[in-house]
């Protein structure tokens, strides 16, 4: 049937649809894929107690140490590392039993992991670091700062509490932390081959907008957590140690008291938010807070630019 003069042509319809699609594309949230580290970085397996840790090292100048958590590896820090490496030495390990590090049977208590980190810094001849941490990295970070206060100049800590301290025990009743006791051989059989499904649960439930964690990112970490021993070491290593970590942290706090270093407590507004500052006020005397908007727990994936704009001035402040 021929078009009447009141019917739009196919070209007009196409242009209209193109305009709508373009508008929607700009309206959708930005996603952050996992990128390779700049060429200025190299990586090596470094000896620690009972195994090795995979460590990325790049740049020159004052040293910044970045520690990741569960659901990530050191790869999560690439957007921030790309900025910091321009005028800092940047050191980024994969935590014990995670990522490309080896899989020792023991040593997952955070005080033990902090001793391994201190040994890595000694091997690199690094005396002092500025510390940036997330999730389980926070727990290793506290053990490092409390045991080796002369090693840590300042600390930016993101979106997870510390075992045994602050409101930790009250938070254990939150159904979102059911995975802390999700372990054992039958659990590992259930998860084997389904690592992506498990990780999707964390990315979806603990984010402000699941679409901000794109397919490439999800597949990247699913592949790493599907490596032999990886889920076992997360469940029966990192998580299973939390009870002992709580006792160790209480003993450390009784011994050293409140930390005196400058500390920046960062929370996603759909996760810990401003409560991160009050959480860290329990253990330190010089705490400033920051809230990342439109973000859940996965701050570096959901809002990398906000994180960079918050962390870099804190690190560079004299």
- Shape, principal axes of CA atoms: globular
Question: Biggest sheet: strands, sense, closure?
Answer: 8 strands, mixed
Order of helices and strands: HEEEHEHEHEHHHHHHEHEHH
The overall pLDDT, averaged over residues, is: 91
Strand proportion, as a percent range, falls in: 15-25%
**Low-pLDDT segments:** 1-30
Strand adjacency order, main sheet? 1-2-4-3-5-6-7-8
Distance between the termini: 75 Å
Structural class comes to: alpha/beta
By DSSP, the count of extended strands is 8
Share of residues in helices: 40-55%
C-alpha-based Rg, rounded: 22 Å
Number of helices: 13
Q: Helices, strands, pairings?
A:
Elements: H1 10-27, E1 41-48, E2 51-59, E3 63-67, H2 78-84, E4 89-93, H3 110-123, E5 129-134, H4 136-147, E6 152-158, H5 168-171, H6 185-191, H7 195-205, H8 215-225, H9 230-239, H10 242-256, E7 263-268, H11 275-281, E8 287-292, H12 299-302, H13 304-316
Helix pairs in contact: 2-13, 3-4, 4-10, 7-8
Summarize the structure.
It is built from 13 helices and 8 strands. The protein is of the alpha/beta class. Strands 1-2-4-3-5-6-7-8 form an 8-stranded mixed sheet, sandwiched between helices.
If you had to describe this structure to a student in words, what would you say it looks like?
The structure is a single chain. With 318 residues, this protein is α/β, with parallel strands linked by helices. It is built from 13 helices and eight strands. The chain has helices at residues 10-27, 78-84, 110-123, 136-147, 168-171, 185-191, 195-205, 215-225, 230-239, 242-256, 275-281, 299-302, 304-316, and strands at residues 41-48, 51-59, 63-67, 89-93, 129-134, 152-158, 263-268, 287-292. An eight-stranded mixed sheet has the order 1-2-4-3-5-6-7-8, with helices on both faces. The radius of gyration is 22 Å and the shape is globular. The termini are far apart. The model is unreliable at 1-30 (pLDDT under 50).
């Amino acid at each position: 049937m021929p078009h009447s003069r009141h019917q739009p042509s196919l070209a007009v319809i196409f242009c209209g649809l193109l305009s709508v699609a373009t508008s929607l594309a700009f309206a959708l949230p930005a996603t952050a894929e996992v990128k390779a580290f700049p060429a200025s970085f190299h990586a090596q397996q470094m000896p620690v107690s009972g195994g090795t840790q995979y460590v990325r090292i790049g740049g020159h100048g004052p040293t910044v140490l970045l520690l990741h958590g569960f659901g990530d590896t050191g790869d999560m820090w690439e957007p921030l590392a790309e900025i910091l490496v321009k005028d800092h030495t940047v050191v980024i390990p994969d935590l014990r039993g995670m990522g490309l590090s080896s899989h020792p049977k023991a040593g997952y208590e955070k005080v033990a992991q902090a001793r391994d980190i201190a040994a890595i810094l000694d091997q690199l001849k690094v005396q002092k670091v500025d510390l940036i941490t997330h999730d389980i990295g926070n727990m290793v970070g506290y053990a490092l700062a409390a045991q080796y206060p002369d090693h840590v100049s300042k600390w930016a800590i993101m979106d997870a509490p510390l075992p045994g301290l602050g409101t930790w025990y009250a938070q254990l009743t939150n159904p979102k932390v059911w995975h802390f006791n999700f372990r054992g051989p039958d659990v590992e059989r259930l998860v084997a081959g389904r690592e992506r499904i498990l990780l999707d649960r964390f990315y979806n439930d603990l984010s402000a907008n699941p679409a901000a964690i794109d397919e490439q990112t999800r597949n990247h970490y699913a592949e790493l957590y599907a490596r032999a021993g990886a889920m076992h070491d997360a469940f029966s290593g990192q998580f299973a140690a939390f009870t002992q970590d709580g006792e160790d942290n209480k003993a450390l706090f009784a011994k050293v008291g409140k930390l005196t270093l400058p500390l920046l407590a960062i929370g996603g507004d759909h996760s810990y938010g401003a409560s991160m500052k009050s959480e860290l006020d329990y253990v330190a005397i010089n705490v400033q807070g920051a809230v990342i908007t439109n973000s859940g727990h996965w701050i570096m994936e959901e809002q990398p630019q906000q994180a960079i704009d918050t962390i870099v001035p804190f690190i560079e402040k004299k």
